[in-house]
């Protein structure tokens, strides 16, 4: 019986986390992403991915941080490893160019809200520019290999 109740509450907790995600302020701790090893970008949002042409050690760090930040903050809706399970769009499909960047920035800044329901939280409230461009760079790197 206790086991039954326990597994039920875990189930409900999982559902709640899935549907409301980070939108419920204060109820979910945003996943901290340590971006101290990445080139700094400042407060002003870049129009295009400033990390796209990074090379060598910088690029390795960008992809490492991007992969982990994605898996902690985006994967539960957009799919593990960037492969969408159908809940939310497959982010590997966004073109690695100006148009793709523009749409990416729009969505991470505004999230997706319809009729008051939050389908995607505003990710810029939880992650800085460095983390979000690192995620985008990582997504571009996995879409290259498809
Ligand atoms: C709670 C679920 C959820 C989480 C978490 C989430 N998203 Fe989303 N995202 C969605 C949904 C649903 C859509 C589709 C919205 C629509 O079309 O109205 C979407 C759309 C997008 C789009 C537009 C894609 C397109 O092809 O139109 C981008 C870019 C995006 N998300 C980036 C991210 C990033 C980056 C993260 C993590 C930092 C993230 N999302 C976390 C649910 C989520």
UniProtKB/TrEMBL annotation:
<dbReference type="GO" id="GO:0009055">
    <property type="term" value="F:electron transfer activity"/>
</dbReference>
<feature type="domain" description="Cytochrome c">
    <location>
        <begin position="61"/>
        <end position="143"/>
    </location>
</feature>
<dbReference type="InterPro" id="IPR051811">
    <property type="entry name" value="Cytochrome_c550/c551-like"/>
</dbReference>
<dbReference type="InterPro" id="IPR036909">
    <property type="entry name" value="Cyt_c-like_dom_sf"/>
</dbReference>
<keyword id="KW-0349">Heme</keyword>
<dbReference type="GO" id="GO:0020037">
    <property type="term" value="F:heme binding"/>
</dbReference>
<keyword id="KW-0732">Signal</keyword>
<dbReference type="GO" id="GO:0046872">
    <property type="term" value="F:metal ion binding"/>
</dbReference>
<feature type="region of interest" description="Disordered">
    <location>
        <begin position="32"/>
        <end position="53"/>
    </location>
</feature>
<dbReference type="InterPro" id="IPR009056">
    <property type="entry name" value="Cyt_c-like_dom"/>
</dbReference>
<protein>
    <recommendedName>
        <fullName>Cytochrome c domain-containing protein</fullName>
    </recommendedName>
</protein>
<dbReference type="Pfam" id="PF13442">
    <property type="entry name" value="Cytochrome_CBB3"/>
</dbReference>
<keyword id="KW-0813">Transport</keyword>
<dbReference type="InterPro" id="IPR030991">
    <property type="entry name" value="c550_proteobact"/>
</dbReference>
<keyword id="KW-0479">Metal-binding</keyword>
<feature type="signal peptide">
    <location>
        <begin position="1"/>
        <end position="23"/>
    </location>
</feature>
<keyword id="KW-0408">Iron</keyword>
<keyword id="KW-0249">Electron transport</keyword>
